[in-house]
Amino acid sequence: MKFQRIKGTRDIYGKEYEILMEFYQRAKKTMDKFGYSFIITPTFEDVNLFIHSTGETTDIVEKEMYVFEDKGGRKVALRPEGTPSVLRAILENDIEIPCKVAYFANMFRHEKPQKGRFREFYQLGVEYIGYIDPLVDFEMFLIIRELMDIFEVKNYYFEVNSMGCIDDRKRYKEELKNYLSEKLEVLCNDCKRRFQRNPLRILDCKIDAEKIKDFPRITEFLCDGCAEHFEKLKMYLNKNNIKFSINPKLVRGIDYYTKTVFEVKSGRLGAQDALGGGGRYDGLMKIIGGPDTPACGFAMGMERIMLASEYKLPYEKDLIFIVYTSPELKEKAYNLYLFLTKETLKCDIVLDTKSLKSQMRRANKKGAKYVVILGEEEEKMGGYKIKDMEKGEEKFIKKENLPDYFKNI
RNA sequence: GUGGGCGUAGCUCAACUGGCAGAGCGCCAGACUGUGGCUCUGGUGGUUGGGGGUUCAAGUCCCCUCGCCCACCCCA
Q1: Crossing angle of helices A166-181/A189-197, nearest 10°?
Q2: Is strand B in 7 Å reach of the CB of A381?
Q3: Domain A319-407 carries which CATH code?
Q4: A87: pLDDT strictly greater than 70
Q5: Which nucleotide is nearest to A201 (CA to C1')?
Q6: Residue A22 and which of A140, A229, A308, A309 are 20 to 30 A apart at CA?
Q7: Residues 173-202 of A with CB under 7 A from strand B
């Protein structure tokens, strides 16, 4: 019986694993600098958490969630995004607000896989909870700029829009519906369906883009407070030389956003060009039963980051390979291997009895810098032969001098 | 969920209108009597994704199914 992984999932190993972990380390360091603390929340939650926060009419909840019933009859969902869980955790653990939280975790969405899109994927998420100040929104851009830097992503760009507050959006929705009702007949079937359920989504439609060119801009329907918030953000961005363009069609697929929304995009990705996205969600905390608390955040897709990144793993040749000339010496060789690992040196050894030649071949293939040779002759002389694989030189060394020999490689 | 492309050795791919499943790389070994890379020589390697059908004969044609890639939808 042979098995294969579930569609849209991946095995991450070898170089890709090393890169992902390196990126995690770097992100951790950056988030530490900005004063964020990391959090791990459960992989699955009560399905209602997402229904109420992400939004009942969103594609994510409507058709992309992995939902199942556990043995206790609870309806459970694999998390499709991180923000609801983080807010839930803050409330449940009475974490003091304001707070700054980050996470690095796998997310699950039942979509058809394509370039840069998987059913299980990794996100780096950042949430800043507690302030209405547009400086918070601005900080998201600052952090992303720094992350793009350390992930070595070069050609990225920001798109920004404002969704206004709940009231603004209500008024805008009416206005948009008015405008669209005259065009409804010429729109595609998807858009006709969206008209009732979620008219904002029609702005996203590529088929009908031409037909609705002169749609009303939401930024013209913002209340004074939201307009000022947006102006301040733009000012901060300009002052700090963060380039962005305003995309009045950017509405995002999650219901809870208010005021600022944004995406980071890359030209290197194909159709799924968003490296990350986020925005302000001032109403969400209240929706899930907490105090009325403003917040802002974003998430980035690590697989997409890796696609867009120019980062190359450093070429570290520091492996020490142990070889032995006869089966009788195997256990001695293995003890040497154990000894060296205690010295925290990177080493390896083959256990199936093979010719010295074959062991040397293996050492070379694994990229060994040094080979320690255990042989009968060397045994008699109380030491080992060490071969420098780059120079091809060999040197005899006494057993007691071995640790020192590798001290400064 | 909808469309298009594709599944042949570990990898990259050949195999005309149906006619004995192949190459390169890799892997293993020898040339080199305790020593890697380079070179040469030999060897290993397959239920042609799976199932069914048509045929004397199917990698090739037909149907079903699974998977991968790309796009739509939507998003990270």
Answers
A1: 140
A2: no
A3: 3.40.50.800
A4: yes
A5: B74
A6: A140
A7: 190, 194, 201
- Decide: A245 and A160 in contact? Cβ < 8 Å: yes
| C1' of B13 to CA of A22 (Å) | 35
Distance in angstroms, CA of A375 to C1' of B36? 17
Q: 């809870």: which residue's tokens?
A: A256
Q: Does the CB of A383 sit below 7 A from strand B?
A: no
pLDDT tens digits for range A160-197: 999 998 889 888 888 888 888 877 777 777 777 777 77
Asked whether this complex has an ipTM greater than 0.90, the answer is no
Shortest CA to C1' contact from A357: nucleotide? B35
Q: Which nucleotides of B are covered by protein (CB under 7 A)?
A: 1-3, 27-30, 32, 34-37, 66-76
Asked if A349 and A370 touch (Cβ cutoff 8 Å), the reply is: no
Check for a shared fold between A14-165+223-308 and A319-407. no
Q: Domain residues of chain A, as ranges?
A: 14-165+223-308, 319-407
Torsion of CA A321, A324, A328, A333, to 10 degrees: -30
Strand B atom within 7 Å of A282 CB: no
Please, which contacts does A386-392 make with residues 24 or more away whose CB atoms are closer than 8 Å? A389/A363, A389/A364, A390/A317
**CATH class, A14-165+223-308 region:** alpha beta
Separation in Å: B62 C1' and A60 CA: 39
